[in-house]
Each structure stands twice: as C-alpha cells, then as structure tokens.
C-alpha cells in the first residue's frame, strides 16, 4: 500500500510537464513536419523519442559519447559533438528549430555565451529556439552539477543585443521572445530531518502527499513555479538591434 502511495505521489509531478508545451509548440511551428530540428543535450532520449513519435524530422546531440553511441545503435538519429561541423553535421543557417531543454543551467555565464553562439549560428534567420530551464528553488542544487539558474530576463539581456546595457560583451545574434510558459510543481516541505534519514518518523509523507494531491486536483495550478520554457525567433540581420 505504501509503495502504491509513493508511486501516486511521484505521478503528481507529471501533471504540468514542459514536454507537452514543447510538443505543442513544435506542432504549431512545424505543422508540415518538414522542419529541420536539433535537440541539444538529448541525454537519455526521452524528449527526442516523443518528438520523433509526432512525425518531426529531429536529430539529437549530446556531450555524452557513450549515450550517443547507444542511441545510434538503436537507430535513433543522433550526432556526436565532433560531428556537428562535418559533412553529416549541422551547417550554419540550416536549422528551422533548435531545442535546448535543461542544459543551460549546467553552464557558467561565460561558457553559456560561447555555447549559445555556437548553436544559434546554425539556426536560420526566422528560425525558432525553444529553451527550458529551472528557476531558483529549494530543489535547484539537488542536481550536483547545476551551476546557475537563468531567468527569462537573463536571456533577454543577452538576446536583445542593444547598446544600452553595461555588459562587457556583445552577443552577435538577436533573438525575440515570442512565447513563455512556467512549470509548476507541488509545494513540498523539504528541509526536515525525516526527509533525509529513513529511520526517522516520516510525518512529512502524508503532508507532502496531501500537497501533491491538491496540486493534481487543481490541474497544477496550486503549486510553485520551478522552471520556465521560452520560445524565441532568430531575427534577420537587417532587424537586429531594432528593439
């Protein structure tokens, strides 16, 4: 019985997944299923498989060589990082859609600038960038290699590429935010002894279960915002800087 309740408690987290928003966005911008799509940081391939199942023409790329080799062995369309600039890779101005989900929070600001520039140069003018990343919550640093949370305003300051800021960098690609979605998760009581010591009295479980239940019952409305997904359009060179 306890195992069933724990599985149900975990299922509450699926009520407001950003995957559904990303898939809806892809269906809207690629209704013909002809767009060239690249998912950066495809990882275990969970989102990649969902995008493929909808009939989109998508490839994945990831820094984990062994994962990519395993995906390729199973027939998934994936690239090693070394392949990006080869004949079978991704040339500049060749992509219609670029998906970067839960990657940028693993990068420090200076590294992020080079990372974004490297991939955005492969996106066509007028192409779509979809970025999903967590906000700063009590859960953010549970992931050991999370470096920094980036809020929508953080990317806007990079992408607007104006001369009115005081930053010591100039980003060469201008992106315009077109849509924004915030993910919610259940409220949780987290930093308590019984959450970390199995032998402790687990009084928190029924409390957190109730919070998860009300979250699910409300369709995800009664919860805290913990991540966001932005949809950006790459500006044509003639319009860059005119914001």
Structural class: alpha/beta
Task: List the helices and strands in order.
Answer: HHEHEHEEHEHEHE
- Weakly predicted, low-confidence segments: none
Radius of gyration: 20 Å
Query: How many β-strand stretches?
Result: 7
Query: What oligomeric state do the depicted chains represent?
Result: single chain
Q: Sum up the overall morphology in one term.
A: globular
CATH topology term:
Rossmann fold
Helical residues, percent:
25-40%
CATH class: Alpha Beta
- Going by CATH, the homologous superfamily would be Vaccinia Virus protein VP39
Strand content: 15-25%
Q: What is the distance, rounded to the nearest whole angstrom, between the alpha carbons of the first and last residues? A: 57 Å
Quick structural overview:
The chain has 243 residues and is an alpha/beta fold. 30% of the residues lie in helices and 23% in strands.
Outline the structure in words:
- This protein has one domain: 3-Layer(aba) Sandwich (Rossmann fold).
- A 7-stranded mixed β-sheet has the order 3-2-1-4-5-7-6.
- The protein is built from 7 helices and 7 strands; from the N terminus they run H-H-E-H-E-H-E-E-H-E-H-E-H-E.
- With 243 residues, the chain is α/β, with parallel strands linked by helices.
- The protein is globular and about 60 Å long.
